[in-house]
Amino acid sequence: MNFPKNILFYVLTLVLPLSLARADTLFVANRANGTVCAIDPTGAITTYASGVSGANGLARDAEGNLYVPDLDGGRLYRIDKTGSVTVDATGLNLPQALAFNAHGDLYLGNDGGMLMIMTHSSIHILTLAGITNIHSVAFNSKGNLFVNSDSVISKLNPTGAATPFVTGLTLPGAMVFDEHDNLFVTERSSSAVVKVDPSGSVHVIAGSIPAPIALVLDSQGNLFVSSANNNIYKVTPSGVVSTFAVGMANPVGLVFDRPPRTAQAAATDPTMTAPPIGIVLALCAPAALLIIAVLIWLVVRNVTHYE
């Protein structure tokens, strides 16, 4: 049998990237009707959970639970993978900004510059000097925490001291980092989404989204941005804007159904955390099975051809 020696190279080159690619389900927190809906890659919308009144943000932990702060009632909702809603915390002071770090700790901004850090075993309160309002929080790939407060985005050190990172934005809102530490920010009053590179330079990447509210990146580098007109827009890496979904109800939070980055380290921890072996196997198993199936088919084909 004249089996091609380099067939494995071609299979790995052509098939592996396709088998590892995945589509993401987008979750949307709707403030006006107290629901969280799920939007699949085709744009089909279903109600995932209800009863989350006062919603003002959305985050996902590594286990797939969703968290929604209740701005009006001072509560924090947790939604498990079945869509069941429970109250995780009460007595909060206008909670409206939340993000998980790589260790699974939840950082939740409260009014008055108070940052609540909820670990697996305890709750800490960090008062941020010189910051009165926390509109959004985000971690970069190195585990550094950035806080948006009153048109100034600052980088925090482990003690809570803030160093201004970028100023001069027009009512900056939601924030998200990409893997290259570019920061994407909504500017509600200017109907724009801007990119702030690691040096602090600001670039407009989309300037036609009416009153953008929340934003999130998918696994392919596309931005999804919710708007006060109850639409959700998709912005490609090249800046092309299209309508992805309509008919939301004041969509104040967006998150995709995938774990947050696991390679980032906390700002107080110089070590890097490798992805759990289970995640690695889960991602690689379908690719390996597809490659094996292709190789078996090629072997059978060549054997049959030369019989």
SSE run: HEEEEEEEEEEEEEEEEEEEEEEEEH
Main beta-sheet annotation: 4 strands, antiparallel
Sequence stretches where pLDDT stays below 50 over 5 or more residues:
8-22, 262-285
Output the radius of gyration.
Answer: 22 Å
What oligomeric state best describes the polypeptide chains here?
single chain
Average pLDDT, rounded to a whole number, is 84
How many discrete domains?
2
Give the strand line-up of the largest sheet: 3-2-1-24
Shape: globular
- The CATH topology assignment of the largest domain is Neuraminidase
Judged by helices, strands and strand pairing, the structural class is mainly beta
- Please indicate the percent range of residues in DSSP E strands (runs of 2 or more): 35-45%
Would you identify the CATH H-level superfamily of the largest domain?
TolB, C-terminal domain
Q: Report the CATH architecture of the largest domain.
A: 6 Propeller
Task: Summarize the topology.
Blueprint: H1 7-20, E1 26-30, E2 35-39, E3 45-50, E4 59-60, E5 66-70, E6 75-79, E7 85-89, E8 97-100, E9 106-110, E10 114-118, E11 123-127, E12 136-139, E13 145-149, E14 152-156, E15 162-167, E16 172-177, E17 183-187, E18 192-196, E19 202-206, E20 212-217, E21 223-227, E22 232-235, E23 241-245, E24 251-256, H2 277-306
Antiparallel strand pairs: 1-2, 1-24, 2-3, 4-5, 5-6, 6-7, 8-9, 9-10, 10-11, 12-13, 13-14, 14-15, 16-17, 17-18, 18-19, 20-21, 21-22, 22-23
